[in-house]
Amino acid sequence: MKPANQCNVFIIGSGPAALFAAIRLEELGVEGIVIADRNSYPAGGLLNDGKLNFDHRVGIDLNELQIDIGTARKLMGDIKRILEGFPYLRQVTFTENNETVDVIQRIALENGVEFIAPEQWHWGTDNGKAAVDYLRGYLKKTTFLMRTEVISIEEAKGKGFILVLRESGRETRIASGTVLAAPGRSGAYWFRDTARKLGIDNTFGPIDVGIRLELNRIIYDPITESVYDPKFIFRTARHGDRVRTFCTNPGGRVRFEAYESFKLVNGDALHGRKTENTNFAIINTVALTEPLSDTTEFGRMIARQFDLLGGGTPIVQRVGDFREGRRSSRSSFNSRIRHFDFCRATCKAVPGDITLGMPARIIDNLWESLKKMDKIVPGILHPSTLMYAPEIKFFDTNFPTTPGLETNREGIFVAGDGTGKSRGIVGAGISGIIAAEGIARKFFPERHR
Ligand SMILES: Cc1cc2nc3c(=O)[nH]c(=O)nc-3n(C[C@H](O)[C@H](O)[C@H](O)COP(=O)(O)OP(=O)(O)OC[C@H]3O[C@@H](n4cnc5c(N)ncnc54)[C@H](O)[C@@H]3O)c2cc1C
User: Fold this and answer.
1) Is residue 20 assigned to a domain?
2) Quick one: which of 26, 110, 161, 365 has the most CB atoms within 10 Å?
């Protein structure tokens, strides 16, 4: 479709928050929708793994979205309805009559740990493009501006906004009555700066800092065969902090996530080809008050420290070395004598010492939690298990909004991970739907049913 220089709803980003918002807007009969993304393919994080958690306790903050459990369930139902025809999506965790769940829940409780087994579906990174094509199939009237970066948002004379765009080095402008910002984590700081210039209120939220564990999948299979992505939640005895497991990938790979001045670790799994390993994140929630409330800067300092130590690459340490208080090194990395060959790394991080880059309190919390987890899933802390760092989730800017996700600047709405409204694909999609309904209710009441 031909780009227009005027539209009704301009959506920044093309991840799940944006696509589900556009689908809902079209369903409501709203026309003149434009989606812009600086990438060449409209997907955002949909090309990653595609593990869908349908549980209001995972990736959905009811308070932040100002919804109750019933509404969250209804919105999860909407996401499922939209995705139900996608052939590569398969259910991987069944919550009803799952005996393993009851057993793990009991053992976890005995160890003072909370265990959640959400209903989960998965399509795999290798089917990510097909998932995006499938979702785009719903969008008959939306205009996509790809390889188009939104540089700034300016107030238009009278009503609405002017979006300043850059495409192939060329600057263009487009006017829009409303804007939905769904820039994801990669665009979060650009949008925060832009929002401040427009007088949009925002505050620092907590971040999650931790590591990614990779182990021979034999150890974790008895659990992940029943619960694909098990969620263990710990409250640490020493510091009283919250630690949780996150994003488990049975038969998956550890991957790097590149940012402008550092790399973080993450993980995914393919649908068609499995590795011998399983990986998952274990992360510590960090909130700051005074004198420093800027969790972003704190997280970036940690990331930069690892970047420095690893010469631009994340660091990996064997549990066997960690226990003995020594760094991992290339020469002994796959040592048979030390049983390190039981787990072959799927990712080329630099062998080193993760305790050099991570604050002591976080290391304490992670290790205390892992020791508890080793009682629930014996073998997790096998000497060969790999600890990759840093894994940091920057969901750290919160925007106070109306129930329709409109900010204090009339006409500017927010959704998705980059604006603190979600943590994951389903949550991002739900926040997109809520924002779409908020836009339709306020600006197109004749169409909103
Ligand atoms: C390796 C990896 C694996 C993951 N696995 C899972 C998983 O299995 N399950 C799950 O639920 N979540 C997973 N996630 C997280 C998931 O990808 C995100 O939660 C989700 O994509 C957030 O959606 P969003 O729409 O808010 O933002 P995004 O999907 O990040 O999309 C935002 C888009 O906005 C664009 N953008 C930003 N700023 C601008 C600008 N100024 N101009 C133009 N475009 C801009 C970006 O290019 C991006 O495409 C994973 C993430 C990674 C990195």
Assistant:
1) yes
2) 365
